[in-house]
């Protein structure tokens, strides 16, 4: 557990008040600790957080930072977080418990092989982009975990099959992108009959767009 002075890590911060694509580069972390983000239960201290900007930051772009975990000390005011092109290997709703305002989370092109839909995620999260990760399976999902989630992008994951009620814990889901997944490769009944059913087996009433393009499924088969 050594402290290491890394080259100044610049994070791009978009302040909501500065409308229209005005970007401001603000140094958020000066000191970080090697290995501290990949080892749970480490003797983590929050020192790097002390240099975080005060409240008011609503959008943070953390692309291409070789992050293995989301920093635990992000501003609580965040509404949009883009952590695409990093090295995250799991996503748990617990990781997001410090971000109660979060609405949009993009983790495109990480190495996420497991997600945990435990309760406690941000109530208002409406868009979750997990495209181009390494999800081969999705966990069972019960109750209303992300009650506001409208858009779930799972395109480009090696998903081969869907269990019944895979999406039942997203009662507001409108747009589900399973494009370019491995659905239909191997297993004969890749999509269980009730894959797109709610908790009681009813169809997901809110679903409007289901993209199964570029999968191994027979044309026209959708399981809906
Ligand atoms: C954890 O931090 C405390 C307080 O700084 C320190 O006394 C202790 O040695 C640390 N433990 C490890 C395993 O680094
Ligand atoms: C991150 O890297 C990807 C791939 O090299 C690139 O397309 C993207 O523009 C980069 N993003 C930033 C913010 O540098
Ligand atoms: C689904 O995701 C793929 C890959 O990101 C994208 O090309 C496609 O347009 C998306 N489909 C819809 C309906 O948005």
TrEMBL record:
The keyword Glycoprotein belongs to this UniProt entry's keyword annotation: yes
Per UniProt, which keywords does this protein have?
A: Extracellular matrix, Glycoprotein, Leucine-rich repeat, Proteoglycan, Repeat, Secreted, Signal
Read off the SMART domains from this record. Answer: LRR_TYP
Q: Which Gene3D superfamilies match?
A: Ribonuclease Inhibitor (3.80.10.10)
Q: Does the keyword Signal apply?
A: yes
Q: Which cellular component terms (GO) are annotated to the entry? A: extracellular space
Q: What is its main location?
A: secreted
InterPro entries annotated for this entry?
A: Leu-rich_rpt, Leu-rich_rpt_typical-subtyp, LRR_dom_sf, SLRP
From which residue to which does the signal peptide run?
1-19
Per UniProt, what is one Pfam family of this protein?
LRR_8
List localization entries.
Secreted, Extracellular space, Extracellular matrix
Q: Please describe the quaternary structure of this protein.
A: Binds to type I and type II collagen.
What's this protein's family per the entry? Belongs to the small leucine-rich proteoglycan (SLRP) family. SLRP class II subfamily.
- What does this protein do, in the record's words? Affects the rate of fibrils formation. May have a primary role in collagen fibrillogenesis.
The name under which this protein is listed is Fibromodulin
